[in-house]
Amino acid sequence: MRTLTARFAGYAILVFFSLVFLYPFVIQIATSFKTEADASANPLSPIPHPFTTDSMTRIFDGTDFPTWLGNSILVTVIVTAARVLFSAMAGYALSRLRFPGRRALFAAMIGLMAVPGVVLLIPKFLVLNQLGLYNSYAGLIVPILADAAGVFIMKQFFDSVPVSVEEAARIDGAGIFRTFWSVVLPTARPALITLTILSFQGSWNDFGHSLVAVQDPALFTLPRGLADLVSGSLGAGNQYPLKLGAALLATIPVAIIFMIFQRYFVRDANDGADKG
Amino acid sequence: MADSKRTSTRSNERLAGWLFIAPVVAVLGLFLVVPILMALWVSFTDWNGQGSPFQSGVPFAGLDNYTGLFAHDGLVRQNFMTSIRNNAYYVIVVVPLQTVLALGLALVVNNRMLKGKGFFRTAFYFPSVTSSVAISVVFLFMFANTGAINEILGFFGVSGPQWFADPRGVLHLALDAVGIVDVNAPPAALSGHGLLGLSWWDWTSGPSVAMCAIIALVVWTTSGTFMLMFLAALQNIPTQLDEAGLIDGATRWQRLRFVTLPQLRPTMFLVLTLGLIGTWQVFDQIYVMSKGNPAKTTLTPAYLSYSTAFRDFDYGSGAAISFVLFLIIVSLTLLQRRALRERP
């Protein structure tokens, strides 16, 4: 009897918090298909009444959303590909190759991981401004092509797998580059997938860098464009259905990746616990 | 012959090592290390954003931008101290709340009797992976005057506040509610005296009502990540320990207090310090939801440094604020790394 009560209480707590954590998304989806009057009269209702796709139409016809979407895809694809490749190369070098300066470079990576992103807003603007890259695609993309955390993850991964296979390949006469490309990378698949997901999520959601790298609306990524929408570039009214709809569309890609590759996300959070 | 082959492998390896790491070094050097040095220089000048900060006409300010934050009475110090106060209250509320919530959820999800763990874990974790900007938009709507939160409060007969227009501090409101002070006529002992440009009355405000909405959002988004860390740690605790406690006749609460929690100490420490480090960096949510308003009660050092530089074109002062914030966060990080190293 007691265990039954305990079990019931356990489920009650879990269901309550599931509602707390998921219902905002239900509100978001529902509001995207509501009229403005309905949205402010029934903010909690999960069912639009009447149902309208008016906001969705206006997101594509009346705002720069398509441009932001295009920019976000461009930035995310390039940044993800580069981060995965560069991190794998650097992690491999730090873990396996003996060259002068290796220890110092690894220490530097650990140090750079501790640099908080928000204090870099002004510094990044300064260097982009100085190099004439401010307000350009290059300025939006190049500074975030590498990250120290990715290098760290790959180094830890290579440290944890035995060298025997590569050594066999090397003894067979394959050069370092060929060994890396055709022997090392294929065996590093799990770490590469984790890194791909992390980089995708990181660059898709990134706001701070685009805030200080560009000011031309034609170069905005989705988070930057959304922030701009909320700041009142829409003109009259609250237009919550439109804003929530745009935010919803911006969330969908990460949500899909999350559903498919959930175990990699979970693993990452736990790796964080290990590395400290 | 064998010797020369080994030597050439060695020098190959050296070259390859540098080539492999070159892209990362170039990007991080040029867009992380160099910018920090540039900003350090700018923090000693009064550069206004025109031209290059290195040209000859830029006025050198020495330490003025730093002393202005601490020593000189004026708007700059008042804004900075207000932002420190706001962020400190934010940290004091967010860190314990998210830690307790994360631990509580992990303990319930980890319960062996319950099914559907995977679903609940996913549900609690999902908010953490979404865009901070997109989710801020949703919470802006939920905390609107006629939004979902006020409708829920209405069910309980509470008429909700105008969240993002309400600068009143909750500590003041609480003291007012029990009749200790009157918000409209603050005691002269507090409002007449002060420290570092803010009156004691201002220092003791607690987070504003507007800040509470942002606190709710952040606790909601971060708890899931920390729950996963607790969950991983819980799963590493040998079940024999708990069973031994059970055989010894320990109650549920005793087992939690004397068996489980001591085992979670390292994770607890990690979650607390990651929380401390993260909460001093709050920026995106402030930018989207409040821009430091109302009455500067959601102003944080990160947002203040941004707005000082990019809105007031006072890059020197903005950079100085960044470096002070940098020091705060780095000292917390060092504290964490040191303690983690010492752990057995």
Would you kindly provide a written description of the structure presented here, covering whatever features stand out?
The complex is a heterodimer of chains A (276) and B (344). Chain A is mainly alpha-helical. Helix content of chain A is 76%, strand content 0%. Chain A contains 15 helices and no strands. In chain A, helix 3 (54-62) packs across helix 14 (240-260) and helix 5 packs across helix 8 (148-160). The relative contact order of chain A is 0.13. Chain B is mainly α. Chain B has two domains: 2-65, no CATH class; 67-169 and 206-342, MetI-like (MetI-like fold, Orthogonal Bundle), CATH 1.10.3720.10. Chain B is built from 16 helices and two strands. Chain B has helices at 2-42, 64-70, 75-109, 117-129, 132-142, 148-155, 170-177, 188-191, 200-203, 209-236, 239-247, 252-263, 265-279, 284-289, 301-310, 315-342; strands spanning 194-195, 198-199. In chain B, strands 1-2 form a two-stranded antiparallel ribbon. In chain B, a hairpin with a 2-residue loop joins strand 1 and strand 2 (198-199). In chain B, helix 2 (64-70) packs across helix 16. Classes of the chains: A mainly alpha (276), B mainly alpha (344). Chains A and B meet through helix 1, helix 2, helix 4, helix 5 and helix 6 of A and helix 1, helix 3, helix 4, helix 5 and helix 6 of B.
The number of distinct β-strands of chain B equals: 2
Unreliable segments of 5+ consecutive residues of chain A: 272-276
SSE succession of chain A: HHHHHHHHHHHHHHH
CATH superfamily of the largest domain in chain A: MetI-like
Radius of gyration of chain A: 23 Å
List keywords for this structure.
heterodimer; A: 276 residues; mainly alpha; MetI-like fold; 2 domains; globular; disordered C terminus; B: 344 residues; 2 strands
